[in-house]
Amino acid sequence: MSADDNRALVRRLLERVAKGWTPDVIEEFFAPDYRRYLNPHTPPLTREGQRARASRLRAAFPDATATLEDIVAAGDRVVYRLTIRGTHRAEFQGIPATGRHVTVSFLGIVRIAEGKLVEEWGGLDLFDLRTQLQAPA
Question: What is the pTM of this model?
Fold first, then answer.
């Protein structure tokens, strides 16, 4: 696939994910051996681990929307930056629902092979998100 094809694949994925993490999204976009590296200290997520993580985020921020700010592709890699906005309606990482509206950045780098995501690095700015949730009222 060309860099343009890979960029288009990531755009389609982001459009589909905005509607929810259904099993067909996993099958369509994620290779069976997909791995997501959140940081150097924890084991990578599998595609099912990624689906579960995204489902937990959607449950905590059910009205979340993502605005694609940047997307750049070169070879088998695509880098994208989102701004995510939503309201904290359920527990998230031990923080009970606050009702606060948050705006947080997301940065992702994916490697694509044979039309599927095989590796991914990055994610939400969790420090900023937790700071917004724990800020004094």
Answer: 0.89
